[in-house]
Amino acid sequence: MNRTDLGTVADRYRSALLDDVIPFWMKYSPDREYGGFHTCLDRQGRVYDTDRFVWLQGREVWMFSHLYNNIERKQEWLDMALSGATFLEKHGRDQNGNFYFSLTRTGKPLIQPYNIFSDCFAAMAFGELFKATGIARYGDIALGTFNNIMARSDNPKGIWTKNYPGTRPLKGFSLPMILSNLSGIISDLLDQETVGRIEDSCIREIMTVFFNPDHGAILENVAPDGSFSDSFEGRLLNPGHAIEAMWFMMDLAQRRGDRSLALRATEITVETLARGWDEQYGGIFYFLDVKGHPPQQLEWDQKLWWVHIETLISLAKGYMLTGDQRCLEWFERVDSYTWSHFPDPEYGEWYGYLNRRGEVLLPLKGGKWKGCFHVPRGLLQVWKAFSTLETVKAADK
Fold first, then answer.
1. Is 185 within a domain?
2. DSSP result, 219-272
3. What does the pLDDT look like over 163-201, one tens digit per residue?
4. What DSSP line would sit under 80-94, residue for residue?
């Protein structure tokens, strides 16, 4: 891929973000009666369910705040973020400050705050909105929520855990993965010693504790001491999670000037992708068992939107930071599959769920898990990475 190609790729991702995906959510997602966002949208953008999933409310607040902070200070983007934040501030938390999992359209609680991931995305949302507005109240919510996350980090599900205590204790990869990204988003609200300590811990957990050298993979669950658990949960590999975490590590490497971390994150990205790629039908598997056994997840062979766009981010950043040619080769392969399967040229935005053969399973554009987050964030990240590469190559010419 030469310099002209880099610019063409950057333009394609920029156009998809600003001319397709963001206009789709701007048009169909706002609830102009009750505030907040509709996320259950069918292929044409029509609302098919009005429940509010707090993960997606927070993610959309973050997304529009991030666009406002990093692309252009458009009032319509800020207004979108403020609408979601107002809804969450009014309805999203219980009396202890824990964010519920879901709400009705009018804001009544539906599902208890059974883990801390709603809090994670709420902290992201209010932290980014604080950057956009400078309103102290939003910073206070972000910081208070973050402190609540840290206080619950040893037992993320609290009383809501299903596992019997002590028989097979495991810790999950999701929390250190999210914290490695969240700590950077709200770093302006934290002292630098705290930021450094959290980053050090996340790097150690992700790159050492959850990376199992015997299996050459980042595991979703390990024993509390980091050892391997030969069980369904312990053998589980989620290629998308592992690869997404690698671009979080690359961002940390870039901020810290740590080339060795960037190189290792790039290597794990390439190795995980090679393992997760479906050589028969193309695309990346959703779940795998590191020993090659049948995974317990029946949807293991589906091809999901977020797995592919997160992989494209890691490959673009890996190439930008290390120059590893394998990243570029894999990028072209994953990019080709992604753009020929997920975008909907007729009604806009992207499909989320394909079967193994790459056929659309669900024509929805948003639901309980898919919202205004992975696709626009990924388009933005790849656009910026290739724009940077184009600028550097132009300067070197």
1. no
2. -SEE-TTS----STTTTEE-HHHHHHHHHHHHHHHHHHT-HHHHHHHHHHHHHH
3. 898 999 999 999 999 999 999 999 999 999 999 999 999
4. HHHHHHHHHHHHSB-
Q: Is the dihedral of CA 287, 290, 295, 297 positive or negative?
A: negative
Return d(Cα 334, Cα 331) in angstroms, integer. 5
Going by the DSSP 8-state scheme, the letter that residue 366 receives in this structure is -
Please indicate, yes or no, whether residues 320 and 353 belong to a single structural domain of this protein.
yes
pLDDT tens digits, 72-108: 999 999 999 999 999 999 999 999 999 999 999 999 9
Going through 109-216 in order, the beta strands assigned E by DSSP cover 109-111, 171-172, 211-212
Which pLDDT band holds residue 6 (cuts at 50, 70, 90)?
Answer: confident
Give yes or no: residues 253 and 362 share one domain. Answer: yes
Statement: residue 240 has pLDDT above 80:
yes
- Is the whole-model pTM more than 0.90? yes
Calpha distance 14→375 (Å, rounded) = 12
Collapse the DSSP code of 151 into the 3-class scheme (helix H, G, I; strand E, B; otherwise coil) and give the result.
helix
- Token pair for 337: 């599959």
Under 8 Å between Cβ of 145 and 123: yes
Q: How is residue 159 annotated by DSSP?
A: G
Its domain, for residue 105, covers 38-162+174-180
Instruction: Identify the pLDDT of residue 338.
Output: 98
